[in-house]
Design a protein that fits this description.
The protein has seven helices and 15 strands. It has about 260 residues and is α+β, with helices and mostly antiparallel strands. It binds zinc ion (ZN). One of its GO terms (molecular function) is acetolactate decarboxylase activity.
Length: about 260
């Protein structure tokens, strides 16, 4: 009796693991609202897994197993402390489901197959790919100082990194097209090598061999920086939010 009852308890919902937590929106990066308005410590209260960017677009963050790493303009990953601040970040409690293995597949096809396999184009979900990438191209934005530039101006101030035959974890989030602006419609993926020496925001990749996991969310919690004067007083009606995000964050961007 106890055993059959235990089977019926859904461990994911019980621990709130189907909630995606987001601090800020990508839309506030467009006009350059890059103040750090939350901390890694706060983000970790809402999950042990995530991605984000630091104040002034200081590096590309990835959180795996409750530990946060930042890849800055040097391309080298470093652990960041709990008081590190960010204008935008996502986290969730990991409860990934194994999906499949894949060999020799490019990033675009891989992402398309993941959406197809899930039948989830209108759903937020996380994807985790662990394996050896025969090719991995990442970027990290160079840290900006206040007064901050717009997202489009910053898009040209980035370092690009290439690695071959690198083993690690690619972690990302898929956002439905009707949420474009609040997030990037489609995938937003970051990478960290197993030896923690390399990573960044994924621009392009070829997976040589790896395992694919996904986790579907039924709830999006968006936390806004309501006490930040820059955010409170900004007039977003003059910003071409959706176009600017497409231009700056598009996964086909190569420069
Ligand atoms: Zn990114």
């Amino acid at each position: 009796m106890t055993q059959s009852l235990a089977k019926n308890i859904h461990p994911i919902t019980e621990h709130g693991a189907n909630v995606l937590y987001q601090h800020g929106t990508l839309a506030l990066l467009v006009p350059g609202l890059l103040e750090g308005t939350t901390t890694i410590g706060e983000l970790l209260k809402h999950g042990d897994t995530g991605i984000g960017t630091g104040e002034g677009l200081d590096g590309e963050l990835i959180i795996l197993n409750g530990v946060a790493y930042k890849v800055g303009q040097s391309g080298v990953a470093e652990q960041v402390p709990d008081d590190f601040t960010m204008p935008f970040a996502n986290s969730h409690r990991a409860a990934f489901q194994y999906q499949c293995e894949r060999n020799d597949i490019g990033l675009e096809e891989l992402n398309d197959r993941i959406v197809e396999a899930n039948g989830r184009a209108n759903t937020f979900f996380s994807v985790k790919v662990h394996g050896t990438f025969s090719f991995m191209k990442t970027r990290a934005v160079i840290k900006q100082q206040a007064p901050y530039p717009t997202l489009l101006e910053v898009a040209d101030r980035q370092a690009i990194f290439l690695r071959h035959d690198v083993t690690g974890t690619m972690l990302g989030y898929f956002s439905p097209v009707m949420f474009h602006g609040a997030a990037v419609a489609g995938f937003h993926e970051h990478f960290l090598s197993d030896d923690h020496t390399f990573g960044g925001h994924v621009l392009d990749a070829v997976l040589g061999h790896g395992e694919i996991y996904s986790q579907v969310f039924d709830t999006l919690v968006t936390h806004l920086p309501v006490d930040d004067p820059g955010y409170r007083n900004h007039d977003f009606s003059q910003d071409n939010i959706a176009e600017a995000i497409t231009s700056a964050e598009g996964d086909t961007r190569t420069d």
